[in-house]
């Protein structure tokens, strides 16, 4: 496992229209993911068993958590407990930094290489 992660060494994935992401680092207990959104891109409502914390690095997002909506901007953050429905609408292009515990197996199963 690498202890120093350089952004330039990680390729972007394109999970949805207007969205690209980089799995920056992970082990079985923790994962760090960078997600870039274009204006109007939607992180569809979904839920998962992982705990999630996200930091708005840049841009403006309408975040929905358990039916409640809030507009967040650069510097803000949010927490999503396990199994709570959540999603995002990008109002101004930006980047979210997501942390998951445990790691999202579905994000790495196709990679086959631990970082």
Automatic annotation (TrEMBL):
SUPFAM superfamilies reported in the protein's UniProt record: RmlC-like cupins
Gene3D superfamilies (alphabetical): Jelly Rolls (2.60.120.10)
Every Cupin type-2 domain range: 35-99
Highest taxon listed in the record's lineage: Bacteria
Pfam families, per the entry: Cupin_2
Protein name according to UniProt: Cupin domain-containing protein
The organism of origin for this protein: Chitinophaga rhizophila
Taxonomic lineage of the native organism: Bacteria, Pseudomonadati, Bacteroidota, Chitinophagia, Chitinophagales
């Amino acid at each position: 496992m690498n202890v120093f992660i350089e952004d330039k060494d990680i390729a972007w994935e394109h999970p949805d229209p207007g969205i690209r992401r980089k799995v920056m680092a992970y082990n079985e207990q923790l994962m760090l993911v960078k997600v870039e959104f274009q204006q109007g891109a939607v992180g569809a409502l979904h839920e998962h068993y992982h705990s999630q914390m996200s930091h708005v690095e840049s841009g403006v997002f309408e975040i929905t958590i358990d039916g409640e909506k809030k507009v967040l901007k650069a510097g803000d953050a949010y927490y999503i407990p396990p199994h709570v429905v959540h999603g995002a609408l990008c109002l101004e292009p930006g980047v979210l930094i997501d942390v998951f515990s445990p790691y999202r197996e579905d994000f790495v199963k196709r990679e086959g290489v631990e970082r």
